[in-house]
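Progress note, project year one: complex with 5-O-phosphono-beta-D-ribofuranosylamine.
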Amino acid sequence: KKIAVLISGNGSNLQAIIDDQQKHPQLYRIALVVSNRPNAYGLKRAAQAGIPTLVIDHTNYSDRESFDAELQRQLDQSEVDLIVLAGFMRILTQGFTQHFLGKMLNIHPSLLPKYTGLNTHQRAIDAGDSEHGLSIHFVTPELDGGPVILQDKVLIEPGESADSLQQKIHQREHIAYPLAVRWFCEGKIALQDNRVQYQQKTL
Ligand code: GRF
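Model obtained:
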């Protein structure tokens, strides 16, 4: 399978997927990395791994529709089977999410449906939650609202800071995201009627 990874920043999840694809070269390969920010560090990670990169700078577009149209055009042209949002900090239009429905994954640092949007770690602490985590979901028009594929949890210790919580969750993300990508590429998961279908692999 061919996948595209969309980033806006550091790209540590991208790195985890780069490392994973090297262990599973038959299963999938990252054909393209797209960033909406020209100076995203993740672009360097991709270049270092010999992966083609593309910058579509959102500041050059007057509205979401025109930005998404260009992004869609590029992704269609690259003929990828899966789009992986990895710290891609843009809200996508309904038309875009519909176009790639069932072919796009996102990772979100909370136990969805709790804490959609930003600052999830601080919000979980402020709410007095005893646990927090990450969710990987299919992307649908609803922001951070698509069907969840898998979650992982960490405990919030007394006196825990948002920073340390973020670090703990990041480490888990780097394990969970490549796993979900592999599941998709192996045909073990699919989106059907706005639900995740888990397929048993027959031997
Ligand atoms: C991750 O915490 C992810 O959950 C969120 O954005 C962050 C991206 O980090 N959507 P990185 O760029 O992969 O290091």
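The beta strands are 2-7, 29-35, 53-55, 82-85, 104-108, 131-138, 148-155, 189-192, 195-198.
The two ends are 20 Å apart (CA to CA).
No further modelling is planned for this target in the current period.
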